[in-house]
Amino acid sequence: METLRVYRPRLVLHGDAGMGQGYIGATALHYLEGYRVRNPDLGVLMGDSTRTVEAAIVQLFIEDKRHQPSIIYTPSLLGWCAAVSETSCSTMHAMLELLSPNDPILLHAIFDGPFSSLPCDVRSRFGLTRENHLTLLSPTDNQLLLSLFTVVYLEQSTHTPSSPIPRSTLTLHAENFVAVSR
Questions:
Q1: Residue 3: pLDDT band with limits 50, 70, 90
Q2: How far, in Å, CA of 83 to CA of 112, rounded?
Q3: Model pTM?
Q4: CA 150: distance to chain centroid?
Q5: Using CA atoms, how far apart are residues 10 and 155, in angstroms rounded to an integer?
């Protein structure tokens, strides 16, 4: 983000609940460890009783513009939109629109569900192109079996015939196989 010219960097991870969106989002943040990460969660926005939620959102963007490159990370997009007022959502949208197209400020959000089920104003924050949406799909039974047998094969190939595979490894893979066959 420091050297590339990216037009309004946005990324939303979405898919069925339980697909690991939170883990993948945290992994992406770990990969971008040197960047300033801000989370506009309710504690940050409503924690200071001397200012409004809208003022906290504006302050967040002012600080992010000052300390570029930065990331605005929302780990539960739908929960955030439901918890704050319409005015706060509008303020967030307006501040995103006021960013220069080349500002290296990444909007990164996590959503449990299909992208199409988000409200239109929230969807518009992530642009029209599908490049900004990462859909996590459920693997098929064949993919699960293939990954199971690939792991077993790799462990078999790393052991010499004189050294048996530890029993705990086989038990772990047997449990995975039972989970696959349900």
A1: low
A2: 16
A3: 0.71
A4: 28
A5: 39
